[in-house]
Structures are given as C-alpha cells and as structure tokens.
Design goal:
The complex is a heterotrimer of chains A (250), B (255) and C (254). Chain A is mainly alpha-helical and 250 residues long. Chain A contains 11 helices and 2 strands. In chain A, a hairpin with a 2-residue loop joins strand 1 (2-3) and strand 2 (6-7). In chain A, 42% of the residues are buried. Chain B has 255 residues and is an all-alpha fold. Chain B has one domain (53-252): Orthogonal Bundle (MetI-like fold). Chain B has 10 helices and no strands. Chain B has helices at 10-30, 40-52, 55-87, 89-104, 111-118, 122-146, 150-158, 163-200, 205-215, 219-247. In chain B, helix 7 packs antiparallel against helix 8. The longest helix of chain B is centred in the C-terminal third of the chain and has 38 residues, at 163-200. Chain B is globular and about 70 Å long. In chain C, 42% of the residues are buried. Chain C is 36% helix and 26% strand. Chain C has a 6-stranded mixed beta sheet, sandwiched between helices. In chain C, strands 2-1-4-5 form a 4-stranded antiparallel beta sheet, covered by helices on one side. The longest helix of chain C has 17 residues, at 167-183. Chain C has helices at residues 46-54, 93-103, 108-121, 137-150, 167-183, 195-201, 229-234, 236-249; strands at residues 5-16, 20-31, 35-39, 61-66, 69-71, 78-81, 155-159, 187-192, 204-209, 214-219. In chain C, helix 2 (93-103) packs parallel to helix 4 (137-150) and helix 3 packs across helix 4. The chains are: A mainly alpha (250), B mainly alpha (255), C alpha/beta (254). Chains in contact: A-B, B-C. At the A-B interface, helix 1, helix 4, helix 5, helix 9 and helix 10 of A face helix 1, helix 4, helix 5, helix 8 and helix 9 of B.
Chain lengths: 250, 255, 254
C-alpha cells in the first residue's frame, strides 16, 4: 500500500480498523460495540485490578504447566516414533487422530475424572499442544539429513553423539515449528478449558463480563488475551527465523 | 510365532494399534483410575445402546447441521475472501494483519458473547463454527494464491497470457491444493467450535448428551458420546485427506 | 534497421531495487536465422538482458527492437524457454505444449494437433499423457522447447535451458537442437555459462563482463555445423574458440 508515493507498513492497517471501530462505537450502532478508546482505557483499568492479576496468574500457570508437560512428553515421543519403526506403527494412527480431533469434547471427561479445577485446564493445554509437537518432531528427525548422519558415522560418532550433535540440531527448525503451533494451540486450550470449567482464570472473567453485559471489560479482556497469543506466537516465530539460515540450506 | 510376513502388513499394525489403545483403556477402567473412568467395554456397550435407542442419531442431526452450514459458508465466503486477499495488494494491506492475529488468537473467547446476540439456537452454533474455522480457511487460500510459482507466471506472460488467464490457468490451479487443505483444517476447527458451543451455550446435540450424562453420573454414556464425536471427526477428516490426495496427487501438485 | 537483424537492443541499462546495477548501456544486434549466445559468469546480467528482450522485465533505459519495431512487452514473434522449465505440474505434456496456443484462444482439436507434431519432433510421442513430474529433467526441457516451437515464433529465447540437465543428456540435446534449427529457420538467443556449450552451438558469442553487465567482446566462431558433432569437438577452430573465451573470462573469476 502506498500513499503519496510512500510505502506504508502493512501493520498500520490495524490502526485503520481501530479507527473504524472507534467510529462505529461512538455512533451507538450497537451496545455490543463500545468505542475502541473506551476499551483500551478499560484494559488499563482492569489490568491493575487484583481480580485480573489473580486470573492472569492462574491462567499463565496452567499454560506454563501444560506446555512444559507437552514438551517433556512430546519431544521424546516424537524422537521415539521417528527412530523406532514399531513405535511409529503402533502410535502413529492415534497421534494423527488426536492432532486434529475436537479436544474440546474431552474437557467434560477431564472434569469428571480429574475434578473441576486447575488440573483440568493443565491437562487440556497438554492435550491441545502435545500431538502437534510429537508430529513435527517426528517429521523433523525423520527428514534429518541422511548424509549428515552418515558423515557423523564415518567419523566414528557414537549413537548418543549422533543424537546430540546431529539429529537434534538438524531437526531444530521443525521442532521449533511444532513448539510454536503447540503454543498457539495451548493458548486456545487455556481459554477453552477455563471457559468450560467456568470457575477459574480468564475463562471465569469472560463468563462474568458477558453475563453482566460489561462490554468494555469483555472486549478489553479479548484484546489482552489476543495480544498475549500473538506475542507468544511471534516470539517463537522469531526464534524459528534464527535457525532458518540452515533450514534453508537443506 | 507370527509368520515373518505379517509384521510388514499395515493391517496387522493397525489392529495392534487398536488393541494397545483399547486394551490400555480397558485396564485403566477396571483398575479403576477413577470412579468416573469406565472401561472400554462398558463404553462400547453404552455406545451401541445409544445408537440403538436413537438418542445418538438425534443428537448428531442437531450437531452436524450447524457444522455443515458453517463450513459451507466458510467454503464460499472464506475462500473467496482469501483469494481476493491474495490477488489484490490493497485488500491484502487492509486485512492480512487482522487475519494473522486471528489465526493465533483463541477465538473461543468470543463464544459466550454470541449467545447474547443470537440466543441459543442454530445461528449461534453456526457462528461459533465460522469464528473458529474462518481464519485458517482464509489464510490457506491467501497463501495458496500468494505462493504461486513466479516462473509459471512469467511463462504465462511470455506467451501473452492476459491477467485473467494468468489467474484462471496458473494461480488458481496452483492454489487449489492448499485451499482444499485449508477447508479440511477449517472443518477440524469447526468440530471444536460446535462442541464448545453446545457445551457452553446451547443445550442441544452431542454437547447436551455429554453434559446430561455427566450430570447424572452415567459415565459410560458420557464417554461413549465423547468417543463418538472424536471418531466422527477423525473419520471425516481422514476421508477428506484421502479425497485431497486423490484430487491432488503429489506428482501434479503445484505447491 | 537492416532486414537481416532480428533483434537489436540499444543502450539498455537495468538497475534493480537496492541499487544493484545489472546492465549498463548494452547495445547488441542479433542476426536473423542465427544462434547467438550471451555468455558470462554468474551475475553478469545475461538472464536479465534476455528477459528484457522477452519483455518480461522492464529496462530502466534503452530500447528493444524486434523485426524492425520497438517493443515494450512480450509478443507472438518471441517464445521463451525457461531454465526451470516452467511447466504446469497439473497438466499433461500435451496440454503443456499446447499451452501457448491455448492462451491465444485456439480451439482444442487444432492446438492439440499442432502440439502433437512438436511433441513427436522432440521425441516425446509416447509421453503425451504424462505429467511433468513423471519425466526426467532432459525430457521436461524437451516439453519446454516443444511449447516454444508450437507457437511458431521466429525468435526463440533460451535461458540456460540445459543447466539443470546432466552432461550426457545435455550433449545429446545440443546436437538435437542444432538439428532442429536446420529444419526451422529460427533466430535463437541463448544464455549460458558454459564456454564449451557456447563455442559448440553458436554462430555469434557475446561475452558480458560482470557487475555491471557490459558487452566485453563479440566473437563469431565460424564453425561449420554441417560436419558431425564428434568431428567438431576435435576441431582446432572449436578448441581455439574455447581457449580464446577462457582467456577472456579468466579475469572475472576470483
């Protein structure tokens, strides 16, 4: 997009949308759409409340715990499935089913089995994130440069050295892509889990705000959560770009 | 001892894979892990019973209807919009950042609000499906268009192809596979959306079946309902993937 | 302009964004019915010049004259053969070869008939219904060549057409190209970085110097192509040409 002969960065279009939002909000078109400026103001107000701090803390904790679990389980499982044929044959089908299955349907099951609380949300995050991490790790390790492995072998590398010095690094671009997709799904998992459990974290706030028709608060929270999701995904994408130089050379 | 040939048969491993999963489930249920965790056999019986008395079939009529309507709307409007985004720099400038953010965002957060606007009927469910599925459908169509091979476009120009021909004969066929993939991923998101909508706002369909059996502690029935939606999602997504591979086999894929 | 000049470029300059000067004041004439080569190390702008002649990219300044008329875009009298073949992966060999005619709106029976003739000519008659990804690199480039012949342009622009093909196939292909040109009176402008290829094929060789690309020298090897290929490759004249070019280009290689 150019204006008066100058290139305008694409991210600037967001300001156009915010402007539009402001106009629609001010025109009183719908009570569901308060002006954008009010929403931002409210975002700063609620960000300082104790209720938000508590909700954010519990949500971040669930997200971090679920993601950590997904990484600890997902990476080794991905390696195992890439290197051991019978593990791949036994588990491949289930990973493929669950990577695109509606995990949201499992939340009531978790609520019944592990109880209505934070643990359910942690497990929801785990289930949302783990399968894509397994799958991408497996693909990365399987596609790891064969000639690199042969090179390492020809120089007398031990099995453990092949893993630590060749395979992990060679599969790093795919592993990071898996982590980024896993994290995006993890954020969705926190929100969905908390919405369905309904008594904790930002999910509780979303319910609360929409039930009491606090639209400024509702949209402020949406902005905060979307911003967080975007920041997580972009920072992992930046990490990916750091290793892109050797992903591109394959 | 199995014959040496049997371990190379995919069917053998598929059966072994089922046996492993369901076996572990059976043991976990009988142990029991939790009072709310029924063994596989009890769940299977409950599933057959629910199929038999028609409650499952009735639930799916009201679950699949909004899913299909939502995906159909995404298929027309979402793909059309994604194509427009890929072809026009102006549309791209205005909308790409929005969709990049929406693709990473937990759209489910909006669902509680939908009830307020559209009540607990079909419209709300359709909207939930569209909200979750649209970003991936739009983005895949957009990427398919933008990734068109520049060398093929130059080729078309060198033979004096018009912009119209360039779009119809090069860019769209090239993007078709990726657009189809987007629709499949959209369906996967749509399943998530319709389930959340039914669990959260509208007491109908498979979500209602899950909630109801959970509330009266009929855990085998609840597990059966959950398994059935995962099964249906898995089967339909797998079928779409096969159609995709048939329509766009690796040797003729542009992307 | 004389009638025996098919293509002429006058004072062509090209600067890519980021101030990369690809070509500076290049003026060249390509005689009708001859095979002319643009030769030079990578980065000398030879492909850029060819694409400017094809009308695929605009020059910053200068003129392109084709058959006595100034042009500023692609035209039916020029056909391009791409380094990466540029075949539609979802279309059969037949449709790919007929594609140029399809774009012109020729009815299917008519264009398929013409395409079949050219497919047979490049030796792919048995592969009409195959898809490009089922063919070897050499066969794919035959499809690219047949597509260029099918539109019956009198000028064929070839951008390193054999660079993605293995050496044996490449030699065979070179011989066939010369053979083909005996039957069709075409003007060919051929970009290559292979000295042997240029010396073997060309009626006229233009050496370009790198960064920015300028005409360093124009050579007419004057090799008699009516003799057999093996004889030519042992010919003193051919070997001298190869050596002369190498002495010239050596200075550009670091």
């Amino acid at each position: 997009m150019t204006l008066f002969g100058r290139n305008i960065p694409i991210a600037f279009s967001l300001f156009v949308w915010f402007g539009l939002w402001e106009i629609v909000g001010r025109s009183g078109f719908s009570s569901f759409i308060p002006p954008f400026s009010k929403v931002i103001e409210t975002a700063f107000v609620i960000a300082q409340t104790g209720k938000f701090a508590a909700a954010a803390a519990i949500s971040l904790r669930s997200f971090a715990a679920g993601m950590a679990l997904a990484i600890v389980v997902g990476l080794p499982l991905g390696f195992l499935m890439a290197r051991v044929a019978f593990a791949r044959r036994l588990l491949g089908m289930w990973v493929n089913i669950f990577v695109s299955a509606p995990i949201s349907a499992l939340v009531p099951l978790l609520m019944a089995v592990v109880g209505i609380g934070e643990t359910t949300v942690v497990v929801t995050v785990f289930l949302f994130a783990v399968f894509v991490i397994v799958l991408d790790t497996q693909v990365g390790v399987q596609h790891a440069d064969r000639s690199l492995v042969e090179m390492a072998r020809s120089f007398g590398a031990r099995r453990s050295q092949i893993y630590t010095k060749v395979l992990i690094l060679s599969a790093l671009p795919e592993i990071l892509a898996g982590l980024r997709l896993g994290a995006i799904r993890g954020v969705k998992g926190v929100v969905i889990g908390q919405l369905l459990v309904a008594i904790i974290g930002v999910g509780e706030l979303f319910e609360l705000y929409s039930k009491h028709f606090l639209m400024e608060e509702f949209w402020a929270l949406v902005m905060i959560v979307f911003l967080f999701a975007f920041a997580i995904s972009e920072s992992l994408a930046a990490l990916e770009r750091k290793v892109e130089y050797y992903a591109g050379s394959r | 001892m199995p014959r040496p040939g049997i371990t190379s048969s995919p069917l053998f491993w598929q059966l072994a894979s089922f046996a492993l999963f369901f076996g572990a489930w059976e043991i976990a249920g009988r142990w029991p892990v939790s009072a709310a965790f029924p063994p596989f056999s009890a769940t299977l019986l409950a599933l057959l019973e629910m199929i038999g008395d028609g409650s499952l079939g009735k639930a799916y009529v009201s679950t699949l209807q909004p899913l299909l309507i939502g995906i159909a709307i995404c298929g027309v409007a979402g793909i059309g919009f994604g194509i427009g985004m890929g072809l026009s720099r102006t549309v791209e400038w205005f909308t790409l950042p929005v969709f990049i953010i929406l693709q990473a965002a937990p759209m489910a957060a909006i669902i509680p609000l939908i009830t307020y606007l559209y009540g607990i009927g079909l419209t709300s469910k359709v909207l939930a499906v569209i909200f979750l599925a649209a970003p991936v459908v739009v983005m895949n169509s957009y990427k398919g268009i933008r990734n068109a091979n520049p060398s093929l476009i130059q080729m078309c120009r060198s033979f004096q192809g018009s912009r119209r021909q360039e779009i119809l004969k090069i860019i769209l066929p090239h993007a078709a596979a990726l657009i189809f993939t987007g629709l499949r991923l959209g369906l996967a998101m749509g399943f998530i959306g319709v389930v959340i909508a039914e669990l959260l706002i509208t007491p109908t369909g498979i979500g209602d079946l899950i909630t109801y059996h959970s509330s009266v502690a009929d855990y085998p029935q609840m597990f059966a309902a959950i398994s059935s939606i995962i099964l249906i999602a898995a089967v339909s997504l797998h079928a779409l993937e096969r159609v995709e591979r048939r329509l766009f086999p690796a040797e003729i894929r542009g992307s | 302009m004389q009638n025996d000049t098919a293509v002429e470029v006058r004072n062509i300059s090209k600067i890519y964004s980021g101030n990369v000067e690809a070509l500076r004041e290049v003026s060249l004439a390509f005689p009708r019915g001859k095979l002319c080569t643009l030769l030079g190390p990578s980065g000398c702008g030879k492909t850029t010049l060819l694409k400017i002649i094809a009308g695929l990219i605009p020059a910053n300044s200068g003129e392109v004259w084709v058959n006595g008329r100034q042009v500023d875009g692609p035209g039916p009298e020029r056909a391009f053969v791409f380094q990466d073949f540029a075949l539609l992966p979802w279309a059969t060999v037949l449709r790919n070869v007929a594609f140029g005619l399809e774009l012109r709106g020729m009815p299917p029976e008519q264009r398929n008939e013409i395409a079949r003739k050219h497919i047979a000519e490049v030796g792919l008659a048995a592969f009409e219904a195959s898809y490009p990804n089922q063919l070897s690199g050499g066969m794919r480039q035959r499809v690219g060549l047949a597509r260029a012949l099918a539109v019956n342009a009198d000028i064929i622009l070839m951008d390193e057409p054999f660079s993605a093909i293995d050496e044996q196939t490449r030699r065979k292909f070179q011989e066939e190209l010369l053979d083909l040109l005996k039957h069709h009176r075409k003007t060919v402008i051929f970009v290559t970085h292979s000295i042997e290829e240029a010396a073997y094929l060309s009626d006229q060789i233009t050496l370009l110097s790198p960064r920015p690309g300028r005409v360093a020298k124009t050579i007419a090897p004057g090799i008699d192509h009516s003799r057999g290929p093996d004889e030519i490759r042992r010919d003193k004249h051919y070997l001298d040409t190869v050596d002369e070019i190498w002495q010239m280009l050596k200075q550009y290689v670091d």
